Amino acid sequence: MKSIHILVYSLIEFLTLLLSSTLISNFLQTGLFPNLAFAVLVYFSFKNGPSLGLLLGIVTGLIADCFSSGPFGFYIFVMSLSGYAIGRFVNVVKLDFLFIPLLIVSVSMLSRFVLILILSWVLGLNFITDQLFTLNHLFELFSTIVLSPLIFLLLRLMDKVFQQRGYKSL
Amino acid sequence: MKDFLKRNSTIILLLFVLSGSTISMWFSETTSLGSPKDLGLAIGSFFQNSTNAIGGLYNDTVNSAQTLETLRKDYNQVVARLRTLEEQQSDIDSLRQQNFRLGEILNLKGGLSFSTLVAQVIGKDPGIIFSTITVNKGYNDGVRKDMPVIVIQDGKQSLVGKISTVAPFSSRIQPLYDRRSNIGGRLSTSRFEGLLIGNGSGEQNLTMTYIDPAARNQLKIGDEVSTSGLNSIFPAGIPIGTVEAIEKKPYESFLELSIKPLCIFGKLDYIYVLIGGLQ
Question: What ipTM score was computed for the predicted complex, to two decimals?
Answer without folding.
Answer: 0.84
